[in-house]
Each structure stands twice: as structure tokens, then as C-alpha cells.
Amino acid sequence: MSEKEKAGRRGLLRAAAVGATATAVLATPGVSRAQTTTLRFQSTWPQRDIFHEFAQDYVERVNRMAGGRLRVELLAAGSVVGAFQVLDAVHAGTLDGGHGVVAYWFGKNKAFSLFGTAPPWFGDANQMLGWFYHGGGEALYKELLGEILKVNVVGFLSGPMPTQPFGWFKQPIERIDQIRGLKYRTVGLAADLMAEMGAAVVSLPGGEIVPALERGVIDGAEFNNPSSDRVLGFPDVAKTYMLQSYHQRVESFEILFNKGKYESLPAELQAIIRHSAEAASADMSWKLQDRYSKDLLEMTQRQGVQARPLPRAILDAQLAAWNNVIVRLEGDNSSPSNGPFFKKVCDSQREWCRRVGNFFLRYEASQVAAYNHFFASR
């Protein structure tokens, strides 16, 4: 081989080596060399509650998909701040994020509860999430956070909840007059609704409800679902479980992050945080079918709980009370961030529910008829 041919071959080998190195650089993910960002993320739930488990399910999705670049560290309610202080703590940067419900911030602006404990014009909570992500709700939520309250947070809604039971009582609730003067725990717009019906409303975080009911500080209470209610100890202090209600027909979880911390993350990690909320939302809606149904049977078959439907007369009274609450809050003109914004959100929801609710009522065959056909005789 001539010197000229040898030189040419060496040049080709060098070019091939450079190309291989470049390919290796491109093929090696930056994840392995990136520094891990750790975020402190507190739920508003006691550690034993299934809601804290749902928060853990969300966190695990983020951590697995982030591939070592981001780690979200979950803490239970009270680890840093109380359940009702999580929004303020995330805003201030005391916490990097939190898992709760929008209704907990109801005292800051009543429109908050429209994104959580909305009036029962939604058919179910999945329809509410549909409005939020595809019907203009998210833009209104961002307006409330960023322009009206000016809090330094970003948030996502996740996890459609079934209709919440009216709750736990020492005796069955059979007449409307039993609600007048009743010391009753609830949160959000449901507090206005129950006050409209004559109850004396007390708002308490989840971990404080059963002790208050046991001591007689309250006469009745709702929290959310059979699994949470069972593990929190409701069957130990009351045996009457009133199901079916319009006080909290639809609700979902809220996932919050400090805005500055969130926006400092690379775009792909921001996407993981957001899309993990969607993935956790779907999984939660499947998991609860298994857990809630089992725990309701456990309470009624083994713990002496009497589960009763709320009478139709009380359901009708709830709907009538909702009318009064909505009219009053829409007409509150003390500031643009009260009545006018509240009505703006309600108008958006009504437009969505009129169209989407009509679609499903026309489109779906009766679930009751099909269930009775296959299972009622057994």
C-alpha cells in the first residue's frame, strides 16, 4: 500500500471514529449526568388515608418518568404545615408543592369552590374535569390564581371523585327539619348550601372530624368516601351512613407547585409533572372502584353500619337551596373578584353542562335497568 493510500485510510478511520463518538453522545441521555432536583410535596391528608395513597401514586409516576432528574418527596398533612395552610406554604416557598382539594381555599375566594365542590349541574366529576381541560375552566382557574389572588402557584386538577355521601350521624336523617340547627362538618360551597338549609356549619380538616363527632362538638359530618371514612374511624363513633346527596356532587384533587420552582424546571420535567396528573387521574378512577365498593361492604356487613339513601324530599330541598346560594353569590358586587367573577365561572360551567349533560342523557341507556336485569334477582 502506498503512503498516499495509507494516509487516506487513516483519514477515513479518524472520520469514522469522530462519527461514532458523536453518535454515542447523541444516544446517551442527559438524564444520567443531570443533577437531581428534589421537591418537598405535602398532602393535606393523614398518612393512613387512601387520599394520601392517591398522592403517593401521583408522586411515584413523576419520579419514575423523571429518570433521576427530578424527585418529589411526599409528606403527610401536618409534616410542615396544617392541611388548610398548604396553599399559603406553596405560595411562600415553604413547600415546593402540595396535594389537596380546591375547596380548602374557599375562604380566600368563594369561586375557588366552583373548581371543586361545584353545583350539581355536572353529571359527574369526570364531566367537571372535561370542562376544566377542554371547556375553558383551566383558563378561569389560572385567572383566579394569578390575576385575582396573585398567588405564586401553578395547579392541575386530577382524580374525579364519585358523589360524596351526606355523611355520618347517630340517628337517620329522614326529615328536612332535622337539618335545622344541626352542627355539621363540610367544606367549600357545601358550607353555604347547608347554612342555607339551616345547619350550623363547621369546617374541619380530615384528621379532626371523628374526634369532634365523638365528643359531640358536631352532630354529623361528611368527609368523602367509604375507604377514607372507614380508616378515619367513622364507624367507631356513628352507625348511620347517609348516602346520595347534592351537597358535593362533583370534586377532584388539586395538585399545586410553587410557580417559580415549577418554571425553573426544564420543559420536559414540567411536562412530566402535568401529564403525571392526567395518568394518576385515570388510575385513581379505576382503583377507587375496587376499594370503595369493598370498604362499603366491610362496614355494612361486619361493622354494623346502616347505609341509607337520603330521602327524596331532602334531595329536592338541596337543589332549591343551591338556587338561592348561586343567585346570592353571583349577585355579590362588593368587588369584581366576587360576584362578577363567580358568575363568569358559573356561566362557563352552565354552557358546558347544558350541552354535555344533554348529550349523555340522550346517548346512554339506563344503567339502573341493565343492573337490575342482571343482578337484582340475585
UniProtKB/TrEMBL annotation:
Name of this protein: TRAP transporter substrate-binding protein
Pfam families: DctP
Cellular component GO terms held in the UniProt record: tripartite ATP-independent periplasmic transporter complex
Binding site for Na(+): 223
UniProt entry keywords in alphabetical sequence: Metal-binding, Signal
One annotated GO biological process: transmembrane transport
GO molecular function (one): metal ion binding
Binding site for substrate: 164, 185, 222, 248
